């Protein structure tokens, strides 16, 4: 394997093709280039090759490389290997990595299937708003759009996030309630089907996002109190391969809307959101139903 370096990029030559790795990029977009890996994997590879690490750390890095949503399919492999991977890792019918356009189409159709009573308690944000918020040129605009959602009048706000080529789900609970409330005090949930990708790495951006939402709405809460809103990461079912994260987030939304308690209290946490929350068969059935809804709208 040869390697050349120019202007912050490293090009690695493999027998079947070339993989370009951008060493200066913080991450990749929701629609990654076919031959580009994101910073997390670069970090793992560099760590493995240049630093002494324990056996356990090496195993964790290797496992991450095999299951991460933006590493799979970036490095060419023999056709026989691809077939073996597909045979040993059966996936739902939403087999492709979901881009934001496809995700929003599925989300809109699913939202229409919910009862009006359910929709009264929920709001959801566009799947690109969180990423757009982190960009200096569009952050203010996103906050204006969120105002129109009246999220402080809802019990739950669903915030799909696509970041570093990976989908996760952020849920705001009882943001309209007082931060001093003992019963329905605000909290946040972060549902991630790839826990080894470290969901908490999103926390700094989430904290800033929440503070700016409160401030743009002219809320009276002090910044220190807002910073104390709990961010909970329940141990939910984990994806089986590198392309299911978008489907998992859609299923998280579907089940949460159905099963969310009337009032989310910390003493009941994590409620139904456990590692055995649903089965692979349940996910398969959901994906089939979702695709049928999509075909009905065409």
Automatic annotation (TrEMBL):
<dbReference type="GO" id="GO:0008234">
    <property type="term" value="F:cysteine-type peptidase activity"/>
</dbReference>
<dbReference type="InterPro" id="IPR003653">
    <property type="entry name" value="Peptidase_C48_C"/>
</dbReference>
<dbReference type="Pfam" id="PF02902">
    <property type="entry name" value="Peptidase_C48"/>
</dbReference>
<dbReference type="GO" id="GO:0016926">
    <property type="term" value="P:protein desumoylation"/>
</dbReference>
<keyword id="KW-0788">Thiol protease</keyword>
<keyword id="KW-0378">Hydrolase</keyword>
<keyword id="KW-0645">Protease</keyword>
<comment type="similarity">
    <text>Belongs to the peptidase C48 family.</text>
</comment>
<protein>
    <recommendedName>
        <fullName>Ubiquitin-like protease family profile domain-containing protein</fullName>
    </recommendedName>
</protein>
<dbReference type="InterPro" id="IPR038765">
    <property type="entry name" value="Papain-like_cys_pep_sf"/>
</dbReference>
<dbReference type="GO" id="GO:0006508">
    <property type="term" value="P:proteolysis"/>
</dbReference>
<feature type="domain" description="Ubiquitin-like protease family profile">
    <location>
        <begin position="75"/>
        <end position="256"/>
    </location>
</feature>
């Amino acid at each position: 394997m040869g390697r050349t370096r120019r202007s912050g990029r490293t090009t690695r030559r493999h027998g079947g093709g070339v993989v370009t790795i951008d060493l200066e990029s913080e991450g990749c977009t929701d629609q990654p280039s076919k031959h580009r890996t994101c910073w997390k994997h670069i970090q793992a590879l560099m760590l493995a090759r240049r630093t002494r690490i324990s056996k356990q750390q090496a195993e964790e890095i290797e496992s991450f490389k095999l299951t991460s949503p933006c590493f799979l399919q970036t490095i060419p492999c023999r056709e026989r290997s691809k077939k073996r991977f597909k045979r040993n890792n059966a996936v739902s019918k939403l087999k492709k990595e979901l881009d934001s356009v496809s995700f929003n189409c599925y989300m809109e159709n699913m939202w229409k299937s919910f009862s009006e009573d359910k929709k009264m308690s929920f709001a959801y944000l566009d799947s690109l708003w969180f990423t757009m918020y982190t960009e200096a040129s569009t952050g203010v605009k996103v906050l204006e759009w969120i105002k129109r959602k009246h999220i402080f009048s809802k019990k739950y706000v669903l915030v799909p996030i696509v970041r570093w080529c990976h989908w996760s789900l952020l849920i705001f609970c009882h943001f309209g309630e007082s931060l001093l409330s003992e019963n329905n005090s605000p909290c946040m949930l972060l549902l991630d089907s790839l826990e080894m990708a470290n969901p908490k790495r999103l926390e700094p951006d989430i904290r800033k996002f929440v503070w700016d939402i409160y401030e743009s709405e002219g809320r009276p809460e002090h910044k220190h109190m807002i910073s104390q809103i709990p961010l909970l990461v329940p141990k939910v079912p984990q994806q089986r391969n590198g392309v299911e994260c978008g489907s998992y987030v859609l299923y998280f939304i579907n089940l949460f809307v159905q099963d969310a308690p009337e009032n989310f209290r910390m003493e009941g946490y994590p409620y139904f959101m456990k590692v055995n929350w649903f089965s692979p068969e349940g996910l398969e059935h959901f994906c089939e139903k979702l695709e049928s809804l999509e075909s009905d709208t065409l």
